[in-house]
Amino acid sequence: MEEAVGLVLGHDLTRIVPGQSKGPAFRRGHVIRPEDVPVLLSMGKEHIYILEVPPGHLHEEEAALRVARALAGSGVRLVGPDEGKMNLQAEHDGLLRVDVDRLRRINAIGEVQVATAFDRRPVRAGDTVAGTRVTPLVIEESQVLAAEAIGREGPVIRVLPYRPLKVGIVVTGSEVYKGRIADAFGPVVEAKVSALGGQVIYKTLSDDQPAMTAGKIREALEQGAELICVTGGMSVDPDDATPGAIRQSGARVVTYGAPVLPGSMFLLAYIGTVPVMGLPGAVMHEAVTIFDHVLPRLMAGEVLTKADFVEMGHGGLLSKRW
Ligand SMILES: Nc1nc2c(c(=O)[nH]1)N[C@H]1C(S)=C(S)[C@@H](COP(=O)(O)OP(=O)(O)OC[C@H]3O[C@@H](n4cnc5c(N)ncnc54)[C@H](O)[C@@H]3O)O[C@H]1N2
Ligand code: MOO
């Protein structure tokens, strides 16, 4: 080890003090000093790597940087390299999109590793949405070129911004309309819409009468709503009039019922290009429901079809810890 004094480190050296810290104690390019020797030995380094990159090969940091550039589409910025790893961060709040097929092909190259969050996850500005590093300290450039070729086919990782939509909320239920209980559903919907940058421009109560609810949906539309949420009355009770009311408003129903729990009695319809959602009681009561999966997609401009809902069953049993 003492012979290493004066030589140049080939990669960042990580030091972990359990329960306290993890990070690079020495960085690539550091010239080893005599006082570093006991620290290196305390980190278990009796031997160290000195940088030497043969022709046709890349150092791990340059490789990770090039792979990260190949992955990053709009709304994503690069951070690093640090300990050979590059992170991709969301530049703004939005819907994460991962091209899962391209991701799979890049990870099949061999020694290029790319980990992402799940496709279509809502993310916040500054969230890390993906990370990449290569396995060896020195990698054949051909592997990086293969990743770059896949990246040129189209973006692998993007964050789509939310559109600042004008939103209408129609809260149904005779108990709320007649003032027997206070509305607890409207505030939940309003908070989730506002958190994604939507602006509630219309909010009203309606009795469990299809004609009244349909009329209020039309009123929201006339006042400029670009997305409409109708709450309650979505289930099988004779008083549950909301699906019929949404149909009566002239909306084209994409799905009534979805393979997601909680929230299986959800309805999505469109009046022209304006989405109209029917939100069942669980959306008021549970922290994470189908609403949290569908709203970000609509706000990001996706137009959903029945096939999109059919796909939701796998993973559709939602966890409170999501
Ligand atoms: N036999 C079946 N039972 C149930 C089914 C089913 O398919 N078959 N579906 C279940 C599901 S899923 C849900 S969710 C619930 C209720 O869904 P609804 O959307 O019909 O909810 P409501 O009947 O309108 O209300 C239920 C409950 O919540 C209160 N509520 C509703 N809106 C408000 C509001 N704005 N503020 C405060 N409280 C509100 C309402 O008073 C009721 O107590 O049905 C399952 N059962
Ligand atoms: O549609 Mo209910 O909202 O699953 O619990």
Automatic annotation (TrEMBL):
One BP annotation, GO: Mo-molybdopterin cofactor biosynthetic process
First-tier enzyme category under EC: transferase
Cofactor or coenzyme needed: Mg(2+)
Alphabetical list of InterPro entries matching this protein: MoaB/Mog-like_dom_sf, MoaB/Mog_dom, MoeA-like
Reaction equation(s) it catalyzes: adenylyl-molybdopterin + molybdate = Mo-molybdopterin + AMP + H(+)
An annotated GO cellular component: cytosol
EC number per UniProt: 2.10.1.1
Stored SMART domains: MoCF_biosynth
Pathway: Cofactor biosynthesis; molybdopterin biosynthesis
GO MF annotations, alphabetized: metal ion binding; molybdopterin molybdotransferase activity
Keywords recorded for this protein, A-Z: Magnesium, Metal-binding, Molybdenum, Molybdenum cofactor biosynthesis, Transferase
The MoaB/Mog domain, residue ranges: 168-300
Family of the protein in this entry: Belongs to the MoeA family.
Function: Catalyzes the insertion of molybdate into adenylated molybdopterin with the concomitant release of AMP.
Protein name, per record: Molybdopterin molybdenumtransferase
Organism, as annotated: Caldinitratiruptor microaerophilus
